[in-house]
Amino acid sequence: MALQEIADTLVKGEAVKLRSFGMFAVRAKRERIGRNPRTGIEVPITPRRVLTFKPSPILSAAINGEIAAEDTDDD
Asked: Of 10, 41, 65, 69, which residue is 20 to 30 A from 33 by alpha carbon distance?
């Protein structure tokens, strides 16, 4: 149920912040020209929305075996 609520919020285009874990956000990417690395042929890449994740300093420190200061951001 909690994951469904997070997914619904992201579909609406709103960011989701989980304290001491990180922030999920949806970012719009514009249309652009890409290149097939195997053939070198240019291919249009359609505009789309992508999900991004930025880990909190606490999570990053834990992964690196460090001790981080407590998160004081109240957002």
From this structure: 10
pLDDT along the chain (75 residues), means of 10: 95 95 96 94 96 95 82 52
Radius of gyration in angstroms for the set of CA atoms belonging to the chain, rounded to a whole number: 17
Determine the 3-state secondary structure of 62 from DSSP: helix
The pair of three-digit structure tokens given for residue 4, joined into one six-digit string: 């469904």
Tokens of 24: 């999920």
The partner residues of 25 in beta bridges, in order of sequence, read 52
Cα 6 to Cα 20: distance, rounded to the nearest angstrom: 16
